[in-house]
Amino acid sequence: MGAINGTQFIERINRLNANIWLNGRKLAGRISEHPAFKGILQSKAELYDLQHDPTLKNKLTYTDLDTGEVMGLSFLQPKTYEDLVKRRTMMELWARHTHGMMGRSPDYMNSVLMAFASSAAILVGRKGCFPEHIQALYKRAKENDLSFTHTFITPQTNRGQLAIPFSEKKPISARVIERTEKGLIITGARLLATQGGLTDEVLVYTGGGIFHESEAYAFSIPTNTRGLKFICRESFISSDSAFNSPLGSRYEEMDTILVFEEVLVPWECVFFYDNLEAANDFMVQGCFHHFATHQAVTRQIIKTEFVLGLAGLLVETINVGGYQHIQEKLAEIIVGLETMKSLILKAEIEAETDDYGILRPNLRSLQAATIIFPRIYPRFSEIIQLIGASGMVTLPTEEDFQSGIREDLDQYLQASCRTAEERVKIFRLAWDLTMSSFGTRQTQYERYFFGDPVRLSSLLYKSYPVSDNMKQVTNFLDIDCLPE
What we know:
By secondary structure, the protein is α+β, with helices and mostly antiparallel strands. The protein has helices at 6-16, 38-50, 57-60, 81-97, 106-118, 131-144, 248-251, 276-285, 288-318, 324-349, 363-388, 398-401, 406-412, 420-434, 437-447, 453-463, 466-477, and strands at 20-22, 25-26, 61-63, 70-72, 148-151, 175-179, 183-194, 201-204, 217-222, 228-232, 255-266, 270-273, 352-353, 359-360. Strand 1 and strand 2 (25-26) form a beta hairpin. It starts with 5 loop residues before the first helix and ends in a 7-residue tail after the last helix.
């Protein structure tokens, strides 16, 4: 089959009929027609359609050497610098189509699965590990252009360092309660599956720091697996009108809690189980962080470009570009953008081939980007709010412009260089990006995309060769280095 189109994607998701709960009710009918999900599914369908655009096909797909089929380029295992650039170009095109607002566009999880497959050899010969199952899933995923969500976070029941999470009678954190001839039986909950229920499969794995074998597992199962339930938060779509909610109506992704009620995970779906060592080092030794971060930073760069464009449009619309404090605010966004762009290019230029022939982008540069962006994106949001000022909270709706007060709106809401309707469209976009439920979720999402920024900073500090720089100073001072 290879690269699918949007219609095929929508039909496949509708057929799944996953067990999704929203506002206390189990969803029924075609998920693509539900008000809370039709926008995001249509936006994803558009991405798949781009793969068949004659002007973009060569940039979004590649021909698999084994099968001769045309496949999505985010599945490509990079062996050369040119491959890395091809991957980034593909991800830029998809991100630009969604303005960087879709944090879980299919290429993110495709990159994750590709990284898993590229590092599967780490698990060879280890107890309870099935690297061949990872390879089989990767092959099936790229040949059928499957879509995935993932979950690796445990519920926030007790974050204390000395917490003992296994004293409860019924598991809270999803864990293996039985090992059978057919497979593992999983019971409990996991967070935080973005687009849960809206993909072909769910990739479930540990992010490390596991102390109990019953949680030391990784697997992928179909979204409609018996006993698997998706509990949605409330929808952040304020309106299905693209005028009133230009971003939320298109890109509201939905976040879900996954509940496993004695879910059978067939052995052929299991990557590893009951192996603490594998659970804690596969993600570290493998190339997951390299490629997941490469995709995420690419998207964040495109998102920053969109934010800069919107800020510039606000400035132009109300003619405040002559003020130095406004110029300084836009310069902040420009500096952030150029910093992120420089880091991803540096990561590619300094890429190194690993023991398995995969060219990994430099992780330290990518780590720096993941620490910077959670700090600057909330500031970008604030800058948009500060430029827009009171104009952000005096916004009529599409219905107002279609009513008897249109003449008043045209007169009193016009801008220096734009009509009232154009001005309101621009300001409603700014509001939806920074002040609506959708917008505030975007800010929180970017703050914690890769976890706690403080923890990320600590990891970079511990792994960075600061001692090399210290040695330069001790040599200059003609003093001895202390033993490490």
